[in-house]
Design brief:
- By secondary structure, the protein is mainly alpha-helical.
- Helix content is 57%, strand content 6%.
- The chain is built from 20 helices and six strands.
- A four-stranded mixed sheet has the order 3-4-6-5. A two-stranded antiparallel ribbon has the order 1-2.
- Strand 1 and strand 2 form a beta hairpin.
- Helix 2 crosses helix 3, helix 5 packs parallel to helix 16 and helix 7 runs parallel beside helix 9.
- The chain starts with a helix and ends with a strand.
């Protein structure tokens, strides 16, 4: 897994979100300011900054611009080497992704023994989605990993609550201080605190007085965990700016009704609450999506389940439900079901009701939590069950290795593999701007001196990689001759002028399963 992620990190150019996070991380580090990217709390970007600190990145202190312009400035205009800077930004996320694999193994071993731990670890280590997003300087895997760690610590609190409950509070706070979607799990995790305390104190006696005492202890413990989590969120903001200087953005969305009431009363720093208002503004917007060849506006409740079905190895799709069945039917595993399955269901329910159908990264917690659940298959004592489990794990490993190093556009064999993903999905599922460097190398080696017309979806600057190209959408169609190079997400959503250009061109080549090269002759 480490080899796969480091190789991917070395070869890929910045994806769409990464420059914003890297730019904000540098501002945190050099100017101690919270003004950029307030829609996401600071912890994930502080983790990224732990890597970029070794890159000695330059940032013009007089720079003025929005967060997208900041990312471009840091990577391409301030004199930094974008390859080197991005690798250092990604390495801390890679290290934490590997450490979360240790959590997966330890959690599953607690539930199903060492063999179950290895089953879970294999599923985690070969997950194309975890490898893809764990090798990027983004926030999705970090948030899911902190939540998984919190749940594992709550499970362990059943035996040693005084040690593990405060640590669970820190892990929960870390998740909330990385991405705000972690807030959806807070009620569930606090209920799990009560459940763990109840189990830990079950020797107090079965009478009403004993049960009341246990319930009171559980509620008190939940308050303590919540306070520790809140303190962790505050600590991340104070780590950036001890004076917590903050001016709300001019275009801050206005929230109304219940949302406004809740946000105004949350015990978090003001920039956190303003970040929530920005996120609500995003949710109120209308986004476009692409699923199974159909481009649409708005969101589909079944988008994420369908995308997971396409992008999950077939062996995982068999082992996940088998493990879930074991968790609710095998007596010794049944106590773990609320810890592993309920947070997953709550997070998925929150994700499918969102307005942004932009990729399975919004559900990257699924392969992490369900890897633990799948460990339960070893509880089936039938010999054939163990043989089938081993065969499915081998199938997962082979499918994952075959896609190396193109993990973002992975889809399973039932849907044609990585080369066909762009026909069914778009954006971070397949084409997130990651292959601009590969495109530059390919054009230099295979098509030197050719006229290039480029429609690129991403945050990279083509000229910084040696690509001299024009936008075909700004020229008369008769002048668009030579190589027409189009990101697959742009093809998925193409209409009008671009669609006509594509249909009158001949497919010639593809780069990383995310960019298509066409030959366009004089019309």
């Amino acid at each position: 897994m480490a080899v796969a992620m480091v190789t991917t990190a070395v070869e890929q150019t910045p994806t769409i979100d990464e420059p914003v996070y890297v730019g904000a991380a540098e501002v945190y580090q050099q100017q101690h300011s919270l003004r950029y990217n307030p829609e996401h709390p600071p912890l994930g970007k502080l983790i990224i900054a732990a890597g970029t600190a070794f890159a000695d990145a330059r940032l013009d202190p007089a720079f003025v611009g929005n967060q997208t312009q900041l990312g471009r400035h840091v990577l391409y205009e301030a004199g930094n080497d974008p390859w080197r800077l991005m690798l250092w930004a990604r390495l801390p996320v890679i290290v934490l992704t590997l450490l979360f694999g240790v959590v997966v193994f330890a959690f599953a071993r607690d539930l199903a023994g060492p063999v179950g731990g290895l089953v879970a670890l294999a599923l985690y280590a070969f997950s194309p989605d975890v490898i893809a997003h764990g090798s990027l300087a983004t926030l999705d895997v970090l948030t899911a990993g902190f939540l998984l760690t919190a749940v594992w610590l709550l499970w362990r609190a059943r035996r040693r609550p005084r040690l593990h409950l405060p640590l669970a509070g820190v892990a929960l706070g870390a998740a909330m201080a990385t991405k705000m979607n972690a807030l959806a799990t807070v009620p569930v995790l606090l209920l799990l605190v009560v459940l763990s305390v109840w189990y830990a104190g079950r020797t107090d006696g079965p009478g009403p007085r004993g049960r009341a005492r246990l319930l009171a202890h559980g509620l008190a413990a939940a308050v303590v965990v919540a306070l520790v989590a809140i303190a962790t969120v505050w600590a991340t903001y104070l780590a950036v700016d001890p004076r917590l200087r903050w001016a709300a953005p001019d275009n801050l969305p206005v929230t109304h009704g219940l949302r406004a009431y809740v946000v105004d009363r949350l015990p978090f720093p003001e920039p956190y609450r303003d970040g929530m208002r920005i996120q609500f503004g995003f949710e109120n917007a209308t986004w476009s999506g692409f699923l199974l060849g159909r481009h649409y506006h708005g969101s589909l409740w079944y988008y994420l389940p369908a995308a997971l079905l396409i992008k999950t190895p077939l062996g995982m799709l068999a082992l996940w439900p088998a493990g879930a069945v074991a968790a609710v039917t095998v007596p010794r595993l049944r106590p773990a079901a609320p810890y592993v399955l309920v947070p997953t269901a709550v997070l998925l329910a929150a994700a499918v009701t969102g307005s942004r159908d932009l990729g399975v990264r919004y559900a990257v917690f699924v392969p992490m939590f369900l890897a633990v659940a799948a460990a339960g298959v070893v509880a089936f004592r039938r010999r054939w069950a163990h043989v089938v489990t081993a065969a499915l794990l081998l199938f997962v490993a082979v499918s994952s290795v075959r896609t190396f190093p193109y993990y973002l556009p992975y889809s399973n064999e039932a849907f044609g593999g990585p080369a066909k993903t762009h026909l069914r999905l778009h954006d971070s599922n397949v084409d997130w701007g990651q292959d601009l460097g590969r495109l530059a190398d390919h054009l230099r080696q295979r098509y030197p001196g050719e006229r290039i017309w480029l429609v690129y979806k991403g945050s990279g600057v083509p000229s910084s990689y040696g690509i001299d190209a024009s936008d075909p959408r700004t020229a008369p169609p008769s002048e668009v001759q030579g190589l027409l190079v189009v990101s697959d997400s742009s093809i998925a959503k193409a209409d009008g002028r671009l669609r006509a250009l594509i249909e009158s061109s001949r497919p010639l080549d593809e780069i990383g399963h995310s960019i298509t090269i066409y030959r366009r002759a004089a019309s």
